[in-house]
# Entry
Amino acid sequence: MALKIITAPTVEPVNLAETKIHLRVDSSTEDNYINSLIKSAREAVENLTGRALITQTLEYLISNWPNHEIKLPRAPLQSVTNIKYTDSAGNEYILDVSKYVVNPDTEPGLIVPAIGYSWPSISLRPTGAITINYIAGYPPSNSELPDYQANVPAGLKHAILLLVGHWYEQRQPINIGTSVTQIPFTVKWLCDSYRVHYWGFEA
# Structure
């Protein structure tokens, strides 16, 4: 199994202005640095929760068809673009959309064969034979004036701010004479309450 980001988020769950208020920073000298911390914190929260916080296009590779359902990493699932598979001779196929059903309302999002169908039974190439392209993340609340922040849970936005604040104050991995923690407990606690459980992967 392998997951790749094809189109990364174009915005962040928290903006620079509100982050600087949290940090109590008035100057613009470190704006670029703070923006980099916001991105890193968002990625950390995504990894801790198994979620995609902002709309992004993902590619998921598996080597074999599962017994039944395919569970897609990074909830919430918005839509599946296509499912491609490659046979042992190197020929690539696109699975017809009529042959599978997508459930974006579960966490994780699911793909199952449509009624009366099963996964293709042809011989697949040894590894990475099946590629699923899909869109995940909390969608914007307004398609005309996209507001990607509105639908991201407040707890996860707060976790990002706390993590940015921690990194902003502690710029080195080790501080002599003080106790060191990799992730503040409050951040982990907030993320744990939103964690998506992917037990029972069948791929």
About this structure: Strands lie at 2-7, 56-62, 70-72, 77-86, 92-94, 100-103, 109-113, 130-136. The helical segments are 16-23, 31-49, 154-169, 185-192.
